[in-house]
Amino acid sequence: MKFNLAFCFFIVTLLPQLLLSQSNFRIGTSDNDRLVKALNDIKQVAENKETYLSVRVYILDNGIGSAGNPSSEVSHDVLVAVSEFDDAPMQNLFEIGPFINPKFIKWVEVNQYNKSFEIEHGNFHERKRIKFKAHIDEIIQL
């Protein structure tokens, strides 16, 4: 008898609430053109999630002709997402660029509070390497 009473209580009171609450979400398109482009075109090229700090490196193209050459070459920005590990983590996103044909090379130094990495960029015969150090609140060119 207790089972039937509990089951009836569930059906009458809780089930309608569960069913109705599932339909209270919205679906829409974003009016933020920059965010739409970024999420459709971005490419993650590196990730380091150790101890205190998480660093993700992305490459995002700036569109046809953005390099300023008659060949319609594309320049790219390197985006670096930095986050602490915590219940309410401090997070930042840094944009570096523009670069011609950037490529993530390697993690140079990794410790608890910062992570250094190397990027290669430039035209085919004129490639250069540059190093950066990521902290939670800044990116420093080394």
Give the topology.
Elements: H1 2-21, H2 33-41, E1 43-50, E2 53-61, E3 75-84, E4 91-100, E5 103-110, E6 115-121, E7 128-134, E8 139-141
Provide structural commentary:
By secondary structure, the protein is an alpha+beta fold. It has a domain at 43-141. The protein is built from two helices and eight strands, in the order ααββββββββ. The chain has helices at 2-21, 33-41, and strands at 43-50, 53-61, 75-84, 91-100, 103-110, 115-121, 128-134, 139-141. The strands form two sheets. A four-stranded antiparallel sheet has the order 1-2-3-4, with no helix packed on it. The chain has a four-stranded antiparallel sheet with strand order 5-6-7-8, with no helix packed on it. A hairpin with a 6-residue loop joins strand 3 and strand 4. It is flat. The termini are far apart.
- Helical proportion, percent range: 10-25%
**Largest beta-sheet details:** 4 strands, antiparallel
Counting DSSP H or I runs of 4 or more residues, the number of helices is 2
Q: What value does the average pLDDT take?
A: 83
Overall structural class, as computed from helix and strand content, comes to: alpha+beta
Strand content: 35-45%
H-E order:
HHEEEEEEEE
Give unreliable regions as ranges. Answer: none
Per the principal axes of the C-alpha atoms, what is the gross shape? flat
- How are strands sequenced across the largest beta sheet? 1-2-3-4
Gyration radius, to the nearest Å?
A: 24 Å
Give a nutshell description of this structure.
This protein is α+β, with helices and mostly antiparallel strands and 142 residues long. Helix content is 20%, strand content 44%. The chain has a domain at 43-141.
